[in-house]
Amino acid sequence: MSKQLLFIHRVLLDPPIYQEDTTFRHGLNVIWAESTDKGSANSVGKTTLKNLIDYGLGKTEFISEEKYQQIPSLQNRCLVLMFGCYEEKYTLRRMLPKIDHCVVYREWSMEERETDIEFIGDISGYLAWLENKLWNGRNRPSNDLKISFRQVMPLMARDQISGFSALEKSFKSEKKKVTQDRLTFLLGFITQERIKAREEQETATTLVEENKATPKILEKFLSTQEIAEEEIKWKLSSLRGELAEKVSERRAKETNIKKIQETELTRLTEDLIKIRNQYEDIEGNLLITESRIDQYTKAQKEAILEIEELEVLIEARESFKLLNTYNCPHCHKELPKEMINQVLHDCGALNNSEQKEISPDLNAIEERKLVLSFEIEDLMDAVEGLSERLGVLRRNKKEVGTKLINAHNKITEMEKQQQNDLLQMNNSINELENQIDHLVKTESLYKRKEELLKQLRAYRKQKREADAKVKEINESEKEMKITLSSYFHEIVSFLYNNQRKGKLDPETLKPQILHINGDMKDDGAAAITVATIAFDLALLKYSLEFCTSEHLLLLVHDSPAQYEIDLSNIYAKVFDWVIKLEKQEMKNYGEIRFQYIITSLYIPENVKENSHGYIRKKLYGGTDDGKLFGITY
């Protein structure tokens, strides 16, 4: 087996029905449905055989459930597809007609040994396994793009209903971009390197667009500043020198203030403490003096009161003598005889409730009055002296209080002056720092502008390199498309005996067949079918020539619309061209690296007579014997 990407070796059913077991070769493989005098070759099973292959390669169903139920012989049968990936051999087993479960064995064998199982699971898992075997992740070049195996298959295996009408109709509901992506992938244009290059170009373009405006904005802003970029360094140096002087001056001022605080302020504080102590002493003496004046005044009043009482006693004694009565002249209380000469007075006239014994000796009373008079004079003198001292103390208190306030104000004023001096110096320093900060910011903006310009130049360089790389890729792709187009033209010319020319749209690769004279398009039904066949063969040749690892190197064409094509000339030449390609392969590589399977109602004589076995299955109409399953359905 050659290093063909995907090679169909054999397809059959287990258990077998009739003649569905078919083995294929590298190169041309013909499933021929021959008409006989007994009947037409239509509906003999050629498309069914193609569908079996497609079912084995992951198609959802082999035939519809309704048709499956109409064919009892298909019940409980398993498709066996033997195929190769590069040089590895595998055998798939999958039940009919629409079973999700698949088992893949290593090697080509009808035996079902568990030790040979390569894969077992549902159809999605089988397709993922198959994609990995074929492309090893190359069909998923990015997170946003994935080319699945089943997306590629309509370009590799065309059905007879709509497969040849146009490239973009390979999937009935497919968007043109998906079709384009598949073609681009098969041409080898979708690779991680190519996607990365275009992503880098897009990123670089975005970076240039996003960053080109900022330097202009900075340039416009800096043009409004009063200082030029080249003056900033000189100005900064000058301001920083001035700032250093101011800071040094402030430091000296702070040291001087500290020294003043340690000397003058300390002295003032000590004076303040002394004055405060004097003030407190004067206040104490004032309290004592006021207390003594109060006591002396009370004593003086008591002495005067006592003199008044003595005078009352004297007056009472004289009254008793004149009246010769035994009653108290004050309270009229009757007195006993024994108390006439010694009165114990408790009526309140002398001292309220106190009882005092008054001596009837008049001399003693007079002496007592004299003593009290002297005592009153002394008390008055003392009060007068204390009052004078009280006035002095109050004047001293006021003077000391004034000194206290002045001392406190002097300290406060000194501290305030020192704070004002420091505040002025700090304001001057802050102003310098603000100027320096503004210049530093302006300088940083100039630097930032240069950095942004440098970065922008780097982004532009990056973009130029990315553009160049993408341009190189685009040129390469353009050259490859030109080459593919030349192959297409070569095949069209071959099929039409140089009576037509082929052309591919440079962007979409849509194939066109043109009249040899001029560029008038041949839009007949036959030309559309031939254009599709020629395009597939051109893509196959391109993949062989450039050894692309994406094309399966497998083509399956199911019954192209032969009634619309000149069979003996154009259609026969399709076989001739494939045979010619086989010979080129053998000559250049010693092996055939592709496989072309075609189901057909017509084959040229050279294919019929071929001893290499181009005809892999011959079916015919008229009787069930010539049909694939030996039955008509």
Outline the structure in words.
The strands form 4 sheets. The protein has a 6-stranded antiparallel beta sheet, covered by helices on one side. The protein has helices at 46-56, 65-69, 123-135, 149-156, 176-186, 192-211, 213-222, 229-262, 264-323, 362-495, 525-546, 567-589, 605-608, and strands at 6-14, 22-23, 27-34, 78-85, 88-95, 102-106, 117-121, 157-158, 344-345, 356-357, 500-504, 511-515, 554-558, 595-600, 615-620. Helix 7 crosses helix 10 (362-495) and helix 9 (264-323) packs antiparallel against helix 10 (362-495). It is built from 13 helices and 15 strands. It folds into 2 domains: 6-182 and 548-626, Rossmann fold; 243-466, Helix Hairpins (Orthogonal Bundle). This is DUF2326 domain-containing protein. Keywords: Coiled coil.
Outline the secondary-structure elements:
Elements: E1 6-14, E2 22-23, E3 27-34, H1 46-56, H2 65-69, E4 78-85, E5 88-95, E6 102-106, E7 117-121, H3 123-135, H4 149-156, E8 157-158, H5 176-186, H6 192-211, H7 213-222, H8 229-262, H9 264-323, E9 344-345, E10 356-357, H10 362-495, E11 500-504, E12 511-515, H11 525-546, E13 554-558, H12 567-589, E14 595-600, H13 605-608, E15 615-620
Parallel strand pairs: 3-14, 3-15, 8-13, 13-14
Antiparallel strand pairs: 1-2, 1-4, 4-5, 5-6, 6-7, 9-10, 11-12
Helix pairs in contact: 6-10, 7-10, 8-9, 8-10, 9-10, 10-11, 11-12
Protein name: DUF2326 domain-containing protein
Keywords: Coiled coil
Organism: Paenibacillus lutimineralis
Give the integer mean of the pLDDT values: 83
Number of β-strand runs: 15
Continuous helix count: 13
> Which structural class best describes the helix and strand composition?
alpha/beta
Distance between the termini: 36 Å
Helix content: 55-70%
CATH topology of the largest domain: Rossmann fold
Q: In CATH's first tier, which class of the largest domain applies?
A: Alpha Beta
Shape: elongated
Largest beta-sheet details: 6 strands, antiparallel
**Strand percent estimate:** 5-15%
